[in-house]
Amino acid sequence: DVKVTQSSRYLVKRTGEKVFLECVQDMDHENMFWYRQDPGLGLRLIYFSYDVKMKEKGDIPEGYSVSREKKERFSLILESASTNQTSMYLCASKFDGAYGYTFGSGTRLTVV
Amino acid sequence: GQNIDQPTEMTATEGAIVQINCTYQTSGFNGLFWYQQHAGEAPTFLSYNVLDGLEEKGRFSSFLSRSKGYSYLLLKELQMKDSASYLCAVAYGNNRLAFGKGNQVVVIP
């Protein structure tokens, strides 16, 4: 089974801090994604990456950046965390051409 | 852009059948997914439709009509563990997936 592992289940950070959310997958998937999920808004795509060092903006990239230095790892960076970035963050991965996403278990981030 | 609509919540009795609808408007349609998500957990894959018609998988079935921009997920013989949010998601463009807001199903004894 494909595993997508997110480094933290719960995280509490202060406003203005730089925050790193890490995601690792173990099945050599080319594509990796970061979503945030908020009540009443559903899952919204922040960024995705289709190859090492490649990235594309999703629907809500403002306030975020990403890094993909190795194929198995995709990091989401909050340069200066704000309270409106309090959310559940979900990482996913998939093979090229295959449409099934596999999700990590999520990181619930609270910014105080 | 992508527009995906689902009802927000429904309640059903254990053993019953429930139908969850999803309508969508999208460019570059590459298929439609249904995911199940229990509270505090990651979404898990239920079904994928790319051609019109009904796909059956045990107690769950999913239907797609591309001309109408419509899909439904049918849950039969409801069990308490089926209480969850059901997410409709449309694949489009280059490996992208757009999600609806999810339909919360509450199963009561």
What are the defining features of this structure?
heterodimer; A: 112 residues; mainly beta; four-stranded antiparallel β-sheet; 11 strands; B: 109 residues; six-stranded mixed β-sheet; five-stranded antiparallel β-sheet; 0% helix; globular
Can you give me a brief rundown of this structure?
The complex is a heterodimer of chains A (112) and B (109). Chain A is built from no helices and eleven strands.
Describe this structure as you would to a colleague.
The complex is a heterodimer of chains A (112) and B (109). Helix content of chain A is 0%, strand content 57%. Chain A has 112 residues and is an all-beta fold. The mean pLDDT of chain A is 93. By secondary structure, chain B is an all-beta fold. Chain B is built from no helices and eleven strands. In chain B, the strands form two sheets. In chain B, strands 2, 4, 5, 9, 10 and 11 form a six-stranded mixed β-sheet that branches. In chain B, a hairpin with a 6-residue loop joins β4 (29-37) and β5. Classes of the chains: A mainly beta (112), B mainly beta (109). Chains A and B meet through β4, β5 and β10 of A and β4, β5, β9 and β10 of B.
Topology of helices and strands:
The complex is a heterodimer of chains A (112) and B (109).
Chain A: E1 4-6, E2 10-13, E3 19-25, E4 31-38, E5 42-51, E6 54-57, E7 64-70, E8 73-78, E9 87-94, E10 102-103, E11 107-111
Parallel strand pairs in A: 2-11
Antiparallel strand pairs in A: 1-3, 3-8, 4-5, 4-9, 5-6, 7-8, 9-10, 9-11
Chain B: E1 3-5, E2 9-13, E3 18-25, E4 29-37, E5 44-49, E6 53-57, E7 60-65, E8 70-75, E9 84-92, E10 96-99, E11 103-108
Parallel strand pairs in B: 2-11
Antiparallel strand pairs in B: 1-3, 3-8, 4-5, 4-9, 6-7, 7-8, 9-10, 9-11
